[in-house]
Write a structure and sequence with these properties.
Immunoglobulin-like; single chain; 49% strand; 3-stranded antiparallel beta sheet; 5-stranded antiparallel beta sheet
């Protein structure tokens, strides 16, 4: 009887420990899930297509319609602001190596094209990069 009683107590103690650990995990999950997340509403920058040789280092949304573009190589960068798939306004930027510039998006769709000569001579290889972005409103 004493062995059965002792084994029963050990089983009960281990079950209590397991249940205690489960409840601690549940408490942690409840705390994590109750953390308030900041609500976001505004524009979100969405990359639709992109191809090229890595001239553009980054494109980021600064505020509602201000876009920051960083290039690795000195290049000519052209921004085509588009509506219904057609360019309605074009901006040109001539950049040095490792440069950054900002522009105001006048439409919710735009194409960024960058090119540079791979070598200093006129017979050098010309390299290109093209990216198409949309600004999506997130309520």
């Amino acid at each position: 009887m004493n062995k059965s009683y002792f084994i029963g107590i050990l089983i009960f103690a281990s079950m209590t420990d397991i249940m205690a650990n489960t409840s601690k995990n549940e408490e942690v999950e409840a705390i994590v899930s109750s953390i308030e997340q900041t609500e976001f509403s505004g524009y979100q920058l969405v990359l639709l297509t992109g191809a090229g040789s890595g001239i553009i280092q980054s494109v980021e949304l600064i505020n509602n319609k201000t876009i920051r573009v960083s290039v690795i190589r000195g290049s000519h960068v052209r921004i085509d602001h588009r509506a219904n798939g057609l360019p309605v306004y074009t901006e040109n930027f001539f950049m040095d190596d490792s440069s950054t510039f900002e522009f105001e998006a006048t439409t919710e769709s735009f194409l960024i094209e960058a090119d540079y000569n791979g070598e200093s001579s006129s017979s050098g290889t010309k390299r290109y990069e093209t990216r198409m972005y949309d600004l999506k409103w997130v309520p």
